[in-house]
Design a protein that fits this description.
Elements (H helix, E strand, L loop, with lengths): L17 H9 L3 H16 L4 H5 L9 H23 L11 H8 L6 H15 L6 E2 H9 L8 H14 L5 E4 L3 E4 L15
């Protein structure tokens, strides 16, 4: 993996993404920024109560839980895009409307801690495409070595992620091992060029 990734040129992304690209470019090293995101999210959100995370600043605005859920949706969508691109899949990818996704997901029903844990799980699996990971490996990395719970917790969280992804879920069970993210079938759902 390269130590640095150069920012894309304006002909490599839709105008909608210009602000995001500029923000990422200000971070200097996007690979380091990706690794720092987990700590930054925890630093910003761990101290919030569920009631605080449910607060909406105004009509039509998202709560912090909805923002975190949207981040998880975007993580899934862009991981899927990257996987398709990395495999040379030239099948057009349809877009997604973020307002519809947030409205349909009901993120305010979930504890903020679960939404953060889902992000950690998504990032962990997306960083290891094709690798079969045991429940214990996932627990140790995502929940931490000092977590005292049943490894079936992983099954519950994987089931929730699969439910949210529907039939498009690239997460597969590896019998006798655990889980892996596999290559999606060509023509499956995902965002299109020039769309969100």
């Amino acid at each position: 993996m390269p130590a640095r990734i150069s920012p894309p040129t304006t002909d490599e992304y839709a105008p909608f993404y210009a602000d995001y690209i500029q923000r990422a470019a200000k971070r200097a090293n996007v690979l380091t920024a990706l690794a720092d995101q987990l700590q930054e999210l925890h630093a910003a959100l761990d101290r919030l109560s569920d009631a605080q995370a449910h607060f909406k600043p105004g009509p039509g605005e998202w709560s912090i839980k909805e923002v975190m859920g949207h981040i998880n949706d975007v993580e899934r969508v862009f991981s899927y895009r990257l996987l398709r691109i990395s495999r040379g899949d030239a099948t057009p990818l349809p877009g997604f409307e973020q307002e519809d996704y947030v409205r349909a997901a009901g993120f305010d029903r979930y504890p903020l801690g679960d939404l953060l844990k889902e992000f950690e799980l998504l990032r962990f699996l997306a960083d290891r495409p094709g690798l079969a990971m045991s429940r214990q490996q996932i627990l140790d990395t995502v929940w931490g070595h000092d977590w005292y719970g049943d490894e079936r917790t992983v099954d519950v969280h994987i089931a929730q992620v699969r439910f949210k992804l529907g039939e498009a879920s690239p997460i597969r069970t590896v019998r006798g091992v655990g889980y892996a993210v596999s290559k999606p079938a060509p023509g499956g759902p995902g965002p299109a060029e020039g769309s969100r």
